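Allow me, if you will, to draw on your knowledge of protein folds for a short while. The matter concerns a single protein, recorded as an amino acid sequence and a row of backbone structure tokens. Could you please explain, in whatever detail you think fit, how the structure tokens follow from the sequence? I remain grateful for any guidance, and I place the record below:

…
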Amino acid sequence: MVSKMNKPGINQAQDNIKGQAGPLNEAIENKKLNKSPQYLRTDRAIVESFCKLLEKKPYEDITVQHILDAVPISRAAFYQHFQDKEAIAEQMLDEYIELQRKVKKKLGSLPQNAYAAEVQAMSEEYRPMIRALMQIHTDRVDLVKAIERELYRNYKRVIRTAEDELSAQIYAAAMAAFQKTMLYLPEEQVSDQGNPELFNKVMINAFLKIMKWENDSILKKMLMEKTSGRIS
């Protein structure tokens, strides 16, 4: 039972992941309902200008005035859309997580050899927003932590035992770290990032290296065969 898992650090990590795993911010979604095309265009212009600013300045150095000058837009108009710059980042993060959910759902209907192309297309279209989010690390906005929460949310649907709970935490943390690494790679090196076999290979090689078993070709082959096609 999960209640028996009282090892130091595990319960805290579990609370960190579970405590924030929930639906998208409904306030952000609801604000777009029944809005004019002009409102939506301005909303998007603010987000895009914010992303461009993050290519030049650290998040901490960006002010609302910088955003007003970049759009350009009046301060009163800005506050009709966002409370502050972090609210922009929150909306971007929610959009990215929702995008991941849609892509995941779509991948379920595609053959595995089509995964890479689908994920790459998504990455290219949203790369400016993703790159911008990677520059932000606050209590409310952290891309890697959000990915970890989302992965945990997906995995925990099949949790039955304490071991499953621990597996969910390890899987979420490992996959989030893997995705973070892929996001930082140059574009020419990420063409295969949608392939679940790549994650298997990377994680198995890391495990073997940590255990100093990297020269054990028989064990490596066995692990590759055992995990083939199981991570998606």
Q: What stands out?
A: The chain has two domains: 24-194, 195-232. Confidence is low (pLDDT under 50) at residues 1-25.
